[in-house]
Amino acid sequence: MKNRPGWAALYAFEVDRAAAAPVFRQVYLQLRSAILSGALRPGTKLPSTRELATQLGISRSAVVAAFEQLLAEGYAVAKKGAGTFVASDLPEPFDVGRGRSKPSTPVPKPTASSGDLGDFVDVTVQSDARPFNLGRTLIDARTAELWRKLNARTLRSFGGDHLGYGDPQGMLGLRKSVCDYLQAARAVRCEPGQVLITAGTQQAVDLVARVMQGPDKEVWVEDPGYPLTRLALAAAGAKVRPIPVDQYGLDVAEGIRRAPNARAVFITPSHQFPKGVVLSMARRLELLAWARVSGAWIVEDDYASEFRYGGRPLASLQGLDEAERVIYIGTLNKALFPGLRLGYAVLPPPLVRPFVTARYLMDRQPSTLCQAVVTAFMEEGHFASHIRRMRDKYRTQRDALVTALRRRLGDHVTVDPPDQGMHLVAYTRQGLSDVAIERAAREHEIVVRAMSRLYVEAPPQSALMLGFSGYPHQSIAPAIARLARAFER
Length: 489
Ligand SMILES: Cc1ncc(COP(=O)(O)O)c(C=O)c1O
Hints:
CATH architecture of the largest domain: 3-Layer(aba) Sandwich
CATH topology of the largest domain: Aspartate Aminotransferase, domain 2
Structural class: alpha/beta
Shape: globular
Bound molecules: pyridoxal-5'-phosphate
Number of strands: 14
Oligomer: single chain
Distance between the termini: 43 Å
Helix content: 40-55%
Radius of gyration: 25 Å
Number of domains: 3
Strand content: 5-15%
């Protein structure tokens, strides 16, 4: 039987070319939802790829890719010479709307203002090694060699210390090394007894959300801000209040106006993510005063503070805090490499027990072998010299990126070298959409992130975020030449 025209319209399928998700994935998701909801019954014949492509006004290859995925995952079966059918062995759908002639459109429309992240949290994008993806680090030959040696040494001594359950708070030796480093480098006030070894920032944020008590977990987050913090908090049932960020960092007065009784504020004061601004001293004091009076917690995410290239270094907010309201969180996943999965939280003393308990209930403890290797790396002074060498490398890479951007794309973007961190922000000139450039860049094998997608309520600014830490400086100019071709389109 021939599929009648308008099959796509009948099922309310449509494609949004401005969306962050690729066209084939939009088609795949809509078909899959229709199958799962029962709108497309088991055994139903799907239209031909050519016909569906014509109805949706897209390329046939996109529909073929969507069908291939449905076939690979078992939602559909291909019958030789007869076409493609919805698999007949699928379980009964849960959806009560089953059998309706016109199901509602299953794919929500992404818009920047709704704070949709598009593929920002797509794990395949997170691990994409192409320039200029965010969050990647370099490990030089010296660190690689030391890492192998220390691993071998740890394994040679493999015994009782490693085999049983360990301290859920983390190895004492590692906590001491972390404390020494933070006191010296970030003016953090701490004792090893206040340090909790975590799997990184992500776990620390999740722990804060678990430990926060009360039915109304209202929290401030930065707008724009780090999406994985906001999403983790929302997933934990927190009532998330996006507070605008300007050139002085989070607008504390606005936060107090909008949510004076919030339980916590999640903030990146030393290098705001994504904009890179520093929280001014006036705002730091205002925030600490509010937290002291209201009893709120300040969760200071001091990510990438190891990589400071110049400018006036501001000590941690935690070091200024007389009232023990700050939970300081840091990560070794940036200082070393993201696959490591080790970080730390420095807790006000009354919070140590609830946090250790929450961590114990979550996954008991960090891996003992990994902690032992990092402890040796820190105790023997290799961490400090690794940071020094990488800081020089990243500074050179940052400079190469700024030079290449100004030379090749100076008419389209404005860029200032950031004083800290592993990424920079290139603001697009009037009328250029960062989302469109992000998409065009992918076709030239370049990964740039559209900053406008990280806004929730505040009016979005169009800018590209480019990571510079993971790419040797020689690779930067050729990659920017490819990005320039994407701009030409
Ligand atoms: C703002 C911010 N905080 C923290 C992190 C590090 O997270 P984790 O330690 O979970 O790898 C990142 C990584 O991209 C980040 O951008």
